[in-house]
Amino acid sequence: MSRTESRPGPEASDALPGPGAGVPAAAGDAGEIGRALRDVLGLAAGFERRLGTVLAVNPTDMKAMEHLIQAGSLSPTDLAGRLGITTAAATLVVDRLVEVGHVDRRPHPHDRRRVVVVPRPASVGRAMDELMPMIGGVARAADALSPRERATVLRFLGQVREVYREASDGPVA
């Protein structure tokens, strides 16, 4: 070490920071709930990765499949809007999904100059085969709640949803 470089003082330590170090006091008492929520979000992300692997699609294509399954069919332009990507990028997504056999392009039912993207029933079935155990488990957990507990959970999740919505819409630092 050169003479101009500073050395850590006696108060410096090689010890690693403990759990929660650096978490602002504004986090309040959300610790246990925050950890549980992070666990659920992490498990959900892992499940989506696994489903993407099973269906042989990347995360963007997976999100496209989700929108198509929910809507039944979408124009490439509508799909681009829902994914937050350009129409050119949506064309590439649709091309990949057609190539792996998950969707078909069909003429628009009212405007033959346009096309709609339609998920193939076999792909929807395959996705649902993977999703149903998880959906059923969540339904069983919800069914075990009393009406009062259900109202509390729904109120809390609604508040958390708003926190995420506001954070997503806010300026990028």
TrEMBL record:
It comes from the Bacteria. Transmembrane segments: none annotated. SMART domains: HTH_MARR. One of its GO terms (molecular function) is DNA-binding transcription factor activity. Residues 50-150 form the HTH marR-type domain. Residues 1-27 are annotated as: Disordered. One of its GO terms (biological process) is response to stress. It holds the Pfam family MarR. PANTHER family: TRANSCRIPTIONAL REGULATOR, MARR FAMILY (PTHR33164), TRANSCRIPTIONAL REGULATORY PROTEIN (PTHR33164:SF106). This is MarR family protein. It comes from Clavibacter michiganensis. The lineage of its organism: Bacteria, Bacillati, Actinomycetota, Actinomycetes, Micrococcales.
